[in-house]
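Contributing new complexes? Match this layout with zinc ion.
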Amino acid sequence: MIDETKSALVLFSGGQDSATCLAWALDRFTHVETVGFDYGQRHHIELEIRPQARAAIAAVKPEWAARLGVDHPLDARSLGSIGNTAMTEDIEIKMGESGLPNTFLPGRNLLFYVLASAVAYRRGLGHIVSGVCETDFSGYPDCRDETITALGKAINLGTARDFTFDTPLMWISKGETWALAAQLGGEALVSAIIEETHTCYLGDRSNRFAWGYGCGTCPACDLRAKGYAEYRQVDGR
Ligand code: ZN
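Output block (do not edit by hand):
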């Protein structure tokens, strides 16, 4: 039997933020499972690197490896079929009239949370962990603390459960996310995140920078690079 209070489901995309959240969960829960979504993303490569990224993070500490349970890859491609977003189509990334970049995929996180809660329900996992963040973010309204709090309430009402929704990165900067990884798993975790995770919107893994692989110019690469520089500058790390 899985102890609900000590178990978690991590929304694990294969990016830096969710990788840090996976380490965060492995550090405090005795049983951790992951869920990932194929939504027709252009950077489909993040789905391909997920198994290896999961394994590399768990390998940082023997107790983490013992705590990591199964992965649940889910099909959410109906989201991509709605279309008209630079996240799923080969169109230029730019600001839209609404003040949101056209990488915003309406309903994405809302749907992911609902699907994740169904998995957590079936698996008897008490915590749902995700890397959503209000700091340094791209203005996505589905990453706001208020959204997750309201959504969590709706999910708990709609499932008659009492899931805890953990968002360890909500109020920290990208530089602080790197520092959190160092605090949780030292340089071994930092280097696993650099080598094995994927953030670039364009799915580019042909260039290797100090902070990992990417095109180096898209908004996701830019944010990751700036955060890494910020992290290394502090105390001359
Ligand atoms: Zn990029």
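Reviewers usually confirm one structural detail per submission. For this one: The two ends are 43 Å apart (CA to CA).
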